[in-house]
Amino acid sequence: MAACRQVTKITTPLIKVEANNAAFSHNQGVLLYENKPFSGTQFLLFANQDTAKVSTFVAGKEHGWSKTWYEDGRLAEERYYEKGKKEGTHRAWWPDGKLRFEYHFKNGEHHGEQKDWFPDGKLAEVFHYVNGHEEGQQQMWFDDGSLKANYVIKDGRRFGLPGVKNCVSVVENNTFRAKK
């Protein structure tokens, strides 16, 4: 027996309003326009009138792509939302076009591999999440490339310490264990 899932398509109304419009306000995480939940596209312009940011909203919650640009027209970041929750792959770039971060979300929570890079392109962090909780290998580096932290999270327990290169159990019988 197969289960069917009905997909509901939400379309964004054609209204476009500049983000600095005084009619915008927030109430309990909902974007209001003229005191009603906003559905449409909110945008922000640079002084030269080029687009700085575009975000879409449905019923006052971000829904769809939110994109930000640098003044030279290069994409600075892109994020996707479903009914106000982060979803899918979110990316940002440094002004020179190198990747700044790549995060993955599921139902508003970090899920999967999350990476951050230094401006020179070297990897800064690699974290792994399952439904918003760290799980698996977690690593951080200094900007010179040397290891800053290396630990593993398994079933909610941390093995290893930030700043320690090899993984050891950090707690034994509720006391810290010396490295042998």
Molecular structure report:
This is Toxin-antitoxin system YwqK family antitoxin. InterPro entries: MORN_2 (IPR011652). The chain has 180 residues and is mainly β. The protein has a domain at 87-180. Helix content is 0%, strand content 55%. It is built from no helices and 20 strands. It has strands spanning 16-18, 24-27, 30-33, 36-37, 40-45, 51-58, 61-69, 75-82, 85-86, 88-93, 99-106, 109-110, 112-117, 123-130, 133-134, 136-141, 147-154, 157-159, 171-172, 175-176. The strands form 3 sheets. It has a 15-stranded mixed β-sheet that branches. Strands 2-3-4 form a 3-stranded antiparallel β-sheet, with no helix packed on it. A two-stranded antiparallel ribbon has the order 19-20. A hairpin with a 2-residue loop joins β2 and β3. The termini are far apart. Residues 167-180 have low confidence and may be disordered.
Shape descriptor reads: globular
Rg measurement, Å: 21 Å
Supply the number of helical segments.
Answer: 0
Major sheet description: 15 strands, mixed
Structural class category: mainly beta
Helix-strand sequence: EEEEEEEEEEEEEEEEEEEE
Distance between the termini: 56 Å
β-strand number: 20
List the helices and strands and how they pair.
Blueprint lengths: L15 E3 L5 E4 L2 E4 L2 E2 L2 E6 L5 E8 L2 E9 L5 E8 L2 E2 L1 E6 L5 E8 L2 E2 L1 E6 L5 E8 L2 E2 L1 E6 L5 E8 L2 E3 L11 E2 L2 E2 L4
Parallel strand pairs: 1-5
Antiparallel strand pairs: 2-3, 3-4, 5-6, 6-7, 7-8, 8-9, 8-10, 10-11, 11-12, 11-13, 13-14, 14-15, 14-16, 16-17, 17-18, 19-20
